[in-house]
Known about the structure:
The protein has 255 residues and is an alpha+beta fold. It has nine helices and ten strands.
Amino acid sequence: MCEGSTDEGSRGRATGVTVCGMQRLRIDVWSDIACPWCYVGKRRLEAALAEFPHRDAVELVWRAFELDPTAPRDLGATPPYAARLARKYGASVAEAQQMIDRMTATAAVDGLEFHFERIRPGNTFDAHRLLHLAHERGLQDALKERLFRAYLSDGEPIGDPATLVRLAGEVGLDSEQAAAVLAGETYAREVRADEEEARRLGIRGVPFFVFAGRHAVSGAHPAEALLAALTTAWADVQGQQETLEGAACGPDGCA
Length: 255
């Protein structure tokens, strides 16, 4: 799990709406583009959803969380990632490189190719604003995926407005609209509302999953645990009361 610091509106937590007599199940996920575990968590959630028989009744909403809200848009020339990690955790560069190697190997198991040597740190606030635009256009998951890959695999400057506009265009968002959002303060309030909700819920690390507004899983748990949480939340939303073995979930995660 990536550690960090961080009025409910139309994107506030909810179980979903009734469609054809069946309640939809909503999943809210707090995460940051700059969090490698969040990308792993996304892949594991996708693996869980692939096994979930009611996938078509699931609504997925990505919520904003900034690991470093004080970061400038572009840090410019920075020390190698291993050196920055060593300084952050008070470790040696060799120990930091071992952490990077373990993270890279973990990501590879989930089909992800991380290149920490390419990472260009920056502020992710504008990226979160564009994710709100993408949510309104039905392209939020596609943009989330592209932003993760841009930062963790491609070495794109994730705080650079021109880069963000290009990436938004690649997933089908109107580039002029994306540029207009970044030129002003559009969706800034929505991002802050996500972060305030995270504080209210006591979220200090991401990824953080909330199923149906009441079942929480903290961290990039294996797909099996996320599927168990899905199953429990689905039974809850549909009004089923039976206890599902191996799927006990609460604010502290799934047992």
